[in-house]
Design goal:
By secondary structure, the chain is α+β, with helices and mostly antiparallel strands. It has helices spanning 7-22, 65-75, 102-110, and strands spanning 29-31, 56-59, 79-80, 83-84, 86-89, 92-95, 97-100, 125-127, 130-132. It starts with 6 loop residues before the first helix and ends with a strand.
Length: 133
């Protein structure tokens, strides 16, 4: 019998027990989105051998990103749920918490921020894993 805990459950607990207390009083949203089998709950015990661990994406106002990131990184335990909180993810070693402004994150992925009232998304179509004009 395996003691495997799905990544989405691990990340939810990581946010609730570790990250949320570190950002108490800071306006934010938290999510687990992006690449990874755990995002769609397709992960298995085998998934944990690569690019896997407790992860959370924190959206905060742009002017608070550096401050919140420093506070979170300083407050992370070495491990959570038996997994390191700083690990290799897509060939880059970094904390499992990414702190970013939502608008910046959207521009990086879509090429525009839908929150600005931009109607440019109308002419975009999906090709592969990226949106293209």
């Amino acid at each position: 019998m395996s003691n495997f805990v799905p990544g989405i459950e691990l990340s939810r607990a990581f946010y609730g027990e570790v990250v949320a207390p570190l950002v108490s009083g800071v306006p934010h949203s938290a999510a687990l989105i992006g690449p990874g089998s755990e995002v769609l709950e397709f992960d298995t015990a085998r998934s944990a051998d690569h690019d896997w661990g407790p992860r959370v994406l924190l959206f905060v106002p742009a002017e608070l990103v550096a401050e919140v990131e420093a506070k979170v990184v300083a407050g992370l335990p070495d491990e959570f749920g038996g997994f390191p909180t700083v690990f290799a993810y897509h060939e880059r070693v970094r904390p499992g918490v990414t702190v970013v402004d939502l608008g910046e994150w959207l521009v990086e992925r879509l090429g525009f921020d839908p929150g600005t009232g931009c109607r440019c998304w109308i002419g975009w179509r999906r090709r592969g894993s990226a949106w293209r004009r």
